[in-house]
Request: fold
Amino acid sequence: MKWLLMGFFLFPTLSNAFEPLNTDDAGTVAAGGNQIEQYFIFINRNGGSSQAVDIITPGEEYSGSADARALPFTYTRGLSNAVEASFSTTYYNQPSGNFSRLSNYVFATKWRFHEDEQYRYALAIKPILVLPTSKQQQVNGLGLASVNYGVNFIASKYWEDIELHVNASYMRSPYNTNYSIGNSADANRTDIFLLSLAPVWTVTPGLRVALDIGATTNPVMTEQYLSYYSLIAAIYSITNNLDLGLSYMRAALTYGATFGSQVAGSTRSEIGVTWRF
Reply:
């Protein structure tokens, strides 16, 4: 982050707002550079109660009725100073059963198509392709047994100690209708929209904190159309190329339930590292 404060020319070296946030940033890995994100997440589904809502994270969706523990992994390669390509997958420690623990094979490309050095903002677009899971993985909520695809529009604005990221995404999410999703027979919506906003503050050199809030299409057709989430995160730069991130997210059917002492529909805790080389 301290490199960002040296000038807008360093946009290509920045690409670490996705983890542990939901909201992506317009930065890309520099041409020829590599980045690995390895995280551990714990999802609490509130005992599978009727107030539980799906945890929506592009490429890491989980719709099972039970709690989950998983290890999402992402590898990103800089193709040019404005284009990167990434591959990600998730290994589930929980739930387990007669299916592969690896799920959510996601291919994506991010293109930063506009940047303004004077006003310090950038715009990017990120097409996403998600390969189908197995039928039993769909039944247990570890993805959908059909090809999913979508696109994310990203806008980032930078000040001296604050940056702001806005995402507007669409996912086409068909599934195998002969099988349940997350052990639920309810039909799911296949057009998923997500709008999110994430301000990030530089507290001290090497330490950032963030608030990430968003509204998304609720997949279950029998429930209300929108669900919401609120997330707080911290990113500590151990070195210039190694970050430690952690976050806590609450998802619910109202914004009020994502804050304060009210019971959230679902929660997600996340911790891990980002390594650039």
In short: The radius of gyration is 18 Å. The CA atoms of residues 68 and 94 lie 5 Å apart.
